[in-house]
């Protein structure tokens, strides 16, 4: 009986995977704001912030405080990408590898086998170091990603960065705050909160994933059941390589004021049909901050940056 909570948790994840994404809010791209594409100029400096109040006087530029700082350096090649410098729960094909490295000597290779839906193979979960986030909390997640030219994405949307929300007091899942990669679409980045069921799409073709090179993706959440546009503070920002792809101010990030967020899932799923080939991509420098970082984007928004 001691395995029951774990089994129930896994079952609920699988159930939720089974219901997303195609069945939810197929009209959402119609609802996406017309001006929700790239909003910053290429000429803007991504790190123009001056870090006010970000550290003791005289201490020099402050750095962000990370609750997750995964560089995948502390292990042998081929070891699972788990531990203090990796996931809390690496999936089975997430191993330390030096074929492509963003920083240091090692990155994490994420794999999926031909025919697999990917759950249990592709990616990993951070579910301990976050603690339990609630209304008023903020989160910045940054990850560097290397997608080789031979990696085949699903024709629809690929689950990418996912923060899971729950009703209070160990209540049921409210669904994920989800960034999806959609490289086969003109607007190659998609976002949805399953607690609200409205798809958004961002970016232009030039914001698509670039192959055979490292890129940095970042997302910011302010958790609230009331969006900024309705007098609350719920807000989402998405950046690619330091450029703001989209900002969402009309969308709640919790369903109820007492809801919480606990788990971060990185990839964790291919699609409902299975991968067309056995293939890999790589991640490195996966970091999460819960306190405002000193960096500022070109619009002055706090971010981790490049
Ligand atoms: Ca590394």
Which helices and strands appear, and what pairs or packs with what?
Elements: H1 4-19, H2 28-31, E1 66-70, E2 89-90, E3 94-97, E4 107-112, E5 123-126, E6 133-134, E7 138-146, E8 158-166, E9 173-181, E10 189-193, E11 200-202, E12 214-222, E13 235-240, E14 243-248, E15 260-267, E16 279-289
Antiparallel strand pairs: 1-16, 2-5, 3-4, 4-16, 5-15, 6-15, 7-12, 7-16, 8-9, 8-15, 9-10, 10-11, 12-13, 13-14
Describe this entry's structure for a reader.
There is one protein chain. By secondary structure, the protein is mainly beta. It has a single domain (4-289), classed as Jelly Rolls (Sandwich). It is 7% helix and 32% strand. The strands form two sheets. Strands 1, 3, 4, 7, 12, 13, 14 and 16 form an eight-stranded antiparallel β-sheet that branches. Strand 8 (158-166) and strand 9 (173-181) form a beta hairpin. The longest helix is centred in the N-terminal third of the chain and has 16 residues, at 4-19. It is globular. The chain starts with a helix and ends in a 17-residue tail after the last strand. Residues 1-60 have low confidence and may be disordered. The structure holds calcium ion (CA). The site of calcium ion has 9 residues, from loops.
């Amino acid at each position: 009986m001691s395995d029951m909570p774990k089994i129930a948790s896994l079952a609920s994840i699988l159930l939720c995977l089974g219901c997303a994404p195609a069945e939810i809010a197929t009209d959402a791209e119609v609802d996406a704001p017309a001006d929700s594409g790239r909003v910053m100029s290429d000429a803007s400096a991504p790190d123009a912030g001056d870090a006010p109040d970000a550290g003791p006087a005289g201490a020099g530029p402050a750095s962000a405080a990370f609750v997750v700082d995964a560089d995948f350096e502390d292990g042998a090649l081929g070891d699972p990408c788990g531990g203090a410098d990796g996931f809390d729960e690496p999936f089975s094909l997430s191993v330390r590898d030096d074929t492509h490295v963003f920083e240091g000597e090692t990155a994490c290779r994420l794999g999926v086998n031909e025919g697999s839906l990917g759950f249990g193979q592709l990616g990993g979960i951070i579910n301990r170091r976050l603690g339990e986030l609630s209304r008023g909390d903020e989160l910045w997640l940054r990850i560097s990603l290397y997608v080789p030219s031979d990696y085949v994405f699903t024709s629809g949307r690929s689950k990418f960065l996912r923060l899971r929300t729950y009703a209070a007091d160990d209540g049921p899942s409210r669904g994920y705050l989800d960034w999806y990669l959609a490289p086969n679409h003109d607007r190659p980045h998609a976002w949805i909160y399953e607690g609200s069921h409205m798809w958004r799409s961002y970016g232009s073709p030039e914001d698509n994933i670039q192959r055979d090179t490292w890129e940095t993706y970042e997302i910011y959440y302010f958790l609230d059941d009331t969006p900024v546009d309705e007098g609350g503070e719920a807000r989402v920002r998405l950046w690619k390589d330091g450029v703001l792809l989209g900002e969402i101010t009309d969308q709640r990030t919790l369903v109820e004021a007492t809801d919480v967020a606990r788990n971060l899932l990185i990839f964790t799923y291919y699609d409902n049909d299975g991968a067309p080939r056995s293939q890999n991509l790589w991640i490195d420098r996966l970091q999460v901050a819960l306190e405002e970082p000193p960096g500022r984007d070109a619009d002055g928004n706090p971010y981790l940056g490049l």
